[in-house]
Amino acid sequence: MPHPDLERRPYTAVLVVPTGIGAAVGGYAGDALPVARAIASVVDTLITHPNVMNGAQLYWPLPNACYVEGYGLDQFAAGRWGLAPVHRNRIGLVLDAAIEEDLRWRHLQAADAARATLGLDLTDYVVTDAALGVELRRAESGATWGTIQRPDSLLRAAEQAIAAGAEAIAVVARFPEDIDTEALQDYRQGQGVDPLAGAEAVISHLVVRTLKVPCAHAPALSPLPLDPSVAPKSAAEEIGYTFLPCVLAGLSRAPQFVPGPGAGRSSLGLWADRVDAIVVPASACGGSALLSLGRRALAIAVEANTTALAVGPEALGIPAVRVASYLEAVGLLAAHRAGVNPQALTAQMPQLKEFRPRAEVHPLGR
Q: Is the pTM of this model over 0.85?
C-alpha cells in the first residue's frame, strides 16, 4: 500500500462556457452538459457553472462536479474564495412579484415536485416586495446582457430567505415577453444568441457578490407556441412551464464559498492553486477565470466552440493549447492527468536536441 504522502493528489479541471455570447456548444439549453459529463469521467473534480449544467427541466447529477455561479467561479479562480463541498444545501426560493398567479403556481409545483420526487430541502418561499423589472439588452457583437430595475428588492428577498434557513438561493424573475422575434426564432433554430442569458447572469452575480451564497436563476416566461422545427439544442426549453428543476438540482449540492485569501486552505475546501486545467472556447478567452488560471494551469482552447466574440488566448499572452473539438480536449485532459506527453500519442516523435543557452549580450557591448 503506497505511503499517504506519495499518493497522487486529485486532478481538478475547470470548464467555462461564457453565457450570452452565442457559443456553438453551451449557448443553448444545457447543450454543454454532455461535455461536462465526458470531462467529469476523466478528472477527479470538475468545477463548472450553471450555464453548462442547466438544461431547463433536464439535468444530470455528476457526483464529482462543483456547480459554481459565474461570479463565484471568478473569485475562486483569483484565489479570493475557496469552495467547501457540502452533503446538501437547504434552498431558498425567491419569486419575482411580477410573476402572474398561474405562472407562480407552476413554479411552486415544480419546487414541490423537487422536494417530493428528488428529496431536495427547501425553505418556505419569499416573494419580492416589488417587481424586479428585468430589462434585456443586446450588444453590437450580438452578445446579450440585461439589467434589473429593483436590485434592492431582490437582495431583501434573498436576505429573508437566508434568515429562514436557506444556504443557497434560487431566483425566479419574470422576463419580458416582447423579445425580438427574429432573434428568438434564430435561437429556437439553434443559430442565434440566447436572448435571456446575459440578464440571468446579472441577477445571480448580484446575489453571490453581495451575500456570498450559491445562487442560480430560472426565468419565468409564458410557454411558446408549438414549433415542430425547433432545433434539438433548444428543445429542452420547449418541454414545460418552468426552467426551475435544473437550478434546484444544481444548488442542492453546490459548494459553499470560503472567504479568503488563504483562510482555512490547509483544512477546508478547494482552492485555485489545486486547479490543473481549464477548458474554454478559443474565441472567448477574455474571461476572468482564464486570466487568473491560464498561466499556471493547462489552458485548453476549443476552436469548434465558436462564439460572437473574437478574443483568442495569444492576444492575452496565455499559453493555451488549441484543440479542434471537445473530443480532443477530453483526450488531452486524460493524457495530462496520466502524466503522458500528448506528443507520444501521435505518429511523430522528434529526437531530443542538445540545449544551447542563448548568449548573453552585455548592455555595453563588452
A: yes
